[in-house]
Task: inverse folding
């Protein structure tokens, strides 16, 4: 899989994409992630990529031309399954979407900044708009890192025990059951006896019951769905 991320502030993505599961997946050749500085196609000595908006609204807007040129350059080298714009008013990102994107071969993620991007980019270049929540951030870089992390960990070989990803929250539409480790008792706080029983059937039944109960308590909307 290959992920190309277009950003005005590529430095914001250096650490999130260089460590832990994502960093190891890159080093093992499971995924390629390339961050592109939009200012490559900026104008003038300041490599300008933004301008004032028509209509006089406050805030600067990323211009259509540098984004167009960057995307067309990338498309000249390979075909892309999706060109995603990280937008506060896009589709809500969830685990099902992460599963879907993990099956793609090549995707572009465009990070907005300032007041947003020229709407013609959204009309003519972007194939999908995604949000990570109903709030506004300074730019799309952190959301892009979230998308990349959620998708990459699903790729075969990214996690040493691939069954671990299959038991994550939301994979079956429920929150995960509580998890415990050694010691079996600490400060008078005990691990549930069933987890110490060594009986896989009883343990699985307990985990299923706990997952349903926690989801009903903490995220009842998932149960309704």
Result:
């Amino acid at each position: 899989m290959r992920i190309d991320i277009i950003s005005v502030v590529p430095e914001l993505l250096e650490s999130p994409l260089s460590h832990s599961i994502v960093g190891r997946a890159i080093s093992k050749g499971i995924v390629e992630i390339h961050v592109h500085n939009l200012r490559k196609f900026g104008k003038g000595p300041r490599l300008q990529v933004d301008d004032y908006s028509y209509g006089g609204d406050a805030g600067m807007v990323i211009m259509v031309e540098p984004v167009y040129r960057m995307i067309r350059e990338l498309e000249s080298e390979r075909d892309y399954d999706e060109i995603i714009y990280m937008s506060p008013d896009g589709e809500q990102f969830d685990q099902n979407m992460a599963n879907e994107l993990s099956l793609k071969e090549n995707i572009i993620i465009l990070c907005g900044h300032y007041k947003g991007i020229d709407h013609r980019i959204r009309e003519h270049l972007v194939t999908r708009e995604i949000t990570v929540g109903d709030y506004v951030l300074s730019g799309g870089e952190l959301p892009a890192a979230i998308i990349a992390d959620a998708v990459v960990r699903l790729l075969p070989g990214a996690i040493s025990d691939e069954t671990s990803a299959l038991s994550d929250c939301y994979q079956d539409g429920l929150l995960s059951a509580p998890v415990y480790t050694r010691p079996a008792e600490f400060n008078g706080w005990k691990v549930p006896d069933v987890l110490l029983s060594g009986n896989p059937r009883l343990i699985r039944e307990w985990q299923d019951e706990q997952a349903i109960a926690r989801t009903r308590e903490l995220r009842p909307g998932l149960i309704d769905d």
Notes: The beta strands are 2-7, 32-37, 50-52, 60-62, 82-92, 106-111, 128-131, 185-186, 189-190. The radius of gyration is 21 Å. Residues 5 and 35 are 5 Å apart (CA to CA).
